[in-house]
Amino acid sequence: MKLGMVSLGCPKNLVDSEVMLGIIRENNFTVTNDPAEADIIIVNTCGFIESAKEESINTILQMSEYKTQGTCHYLIVTGCLSQRYAAELSQSIPEVDAFVGTNCFTEIGWVIEQVMAGRKVQHMIRKDTEQQAEMPRMLTTPEYMAYLKIAEGCDNCCSYCIIPKLRGPYTSRPYETVIAEAKELAAGGIKEIIVVAQDTTRYGEDLYGKLMLPQLLKDLNAIDGIEWIRVMYCYPNNFTDELIEAFATLPKVCKYIDLPLQHASNRLLASMNRYDTKEEVCVLLEKLRTRIPGIVIRTTFIVGFPGETDEDFAELKEFVAGQRFENAGVFKYSQEEGTVAGEMPNQIPEEIKENRYHELMALQAEISEELHQELEETELEVVIEGFDEENSSLAVARSYREAPEIDGNIFVENAANLHIGDFVKVRIVQGFTYEMVAERV
Asked: Which of 22, 82, 152, 153 could form a disulfide with 137 if both were Cys (CB 3.0 to 4.6 A apart)?
């Protein structure tokens, strides 16, 4: 039988999808990229904010059509939306044969057996409560890069976020299994490893009583074959001097820091249940930029959080203008049921959220373009990711400054003799808001 998978949401969710595909492949199913020819379709959903929920529901509805228009016999929904709304979705979308919770995806083989036996399933509590052995994994990323998930769940409990309720408490993977998987990835030809978790900086605290990310980066840096190590989802409150030193001194660790800050108003940061003040964040940013020359800092902000005043928003804009982040994403606050912030008074009208979103994005676009123009005539190492469909000598690439699927691209001219996965030196010719044009050195 053939099985198709649609994976939505963050890279952490993609790793879960790859584990399910690995389990499925070991059970002698054929994996297909064409849902029209799949006998079983799995949709691994995201339920983080309203836009993600809408995308997940629309995808489920689209995939359900293959039960009448294609060869699909069974439709399975996994991930955060399934964990959160299985009961409601089973009533509104009866075409779905099984809903699987966030801690049960490793039992996808059992779920498939149940639906093939004609049973409707809502599997929210794992049958095997013992510590599970490492699962097989089928990579879906380009052959030169892979994500390395080092923990599950979250204990930060930001007031706007539903993830702790969907994913459970922060649980680090054992150190030796993380290193073993990284070595296996490198042996398989992976050159860029991207370390992910809900909060990478907290890694190891629950298992070993101390923050282990600095040591993990040292040991990953020593693995032959790996060229880039990129770390995502770093929280400022656990970004220690030891971790700064690891970024500064380990040659394979990309000088790229993903540091979600969310706001600059101390009053709103406290209301969000964030652990840092603006002043503490400014001290950290100064340390990072002083100790790590060439560092790129990516961050995210929320506009329209309950009670955000014009003065709060003005403070945020002033902060962004002063800090000049290389990359920044902006989210409109999403009022989520089951969260502390969702019950707060002073919810902000959608029109104001929309206006603040566009205003902050426009400010960041100006900053990004200026910083990219300042890079003109500098040299960078890039990885080739693809080629223009109409011009085969124009390559699409990334440097250490850009994370895949999140940041912009570098377009490399005169690249006809290059291949996907090659690491080459280029000179930046022209910088734009989200992209740069370069030539081979």
From this structure: 22
Which stretch of DSSP H or E encloses residue 53? helix 50-64
**Residue at token pair 């994500």:** 147
CB 21 within 8 A of CB 31: yes
Q: Which pair of structure tokens corresponds to residue 225?
A: 């074959």
Reported as type and span, the H/E element at residue 372 is: helix 350-374
Q: Would you say 416 and 424 are in contact if contact means Cβ atoms under 8 Å apart?
A: no
Please tell me the distance from the alpha carbon of residue 401 to that of residue 249, in angstroms, as a whole number. Answer: 17
Average pLDDT, rounded, for the chain: 95
pLDDT tens digits, 38-73:
999 999 999 888 899 999 999 999 999 999 888 999
Residue pLDDT, tens place only, 281-296? 999 999 999 999 999 9
Round to whole Å and give the CA distance between 394 and 325.
28
Pairing mode, strands 98-100 and 121-123:
parallel
Q: Residue 194 in 3-state DSSP?
A: strand
Residue 131 has pLDDT above 60, yes or no: no
What average pLDDT does range 385-398 have in this prediction?
94
- Return the H-helix or E-strand segment holding 255: strand 253-258
H-only helix segments in 104-221: 108-116, 163-167, 175-187, 205-208, 213-221
264 closest CA partner among 323, 208, 334, 315: 315
Give, as one character, the DSSP assignment of residue 13: H
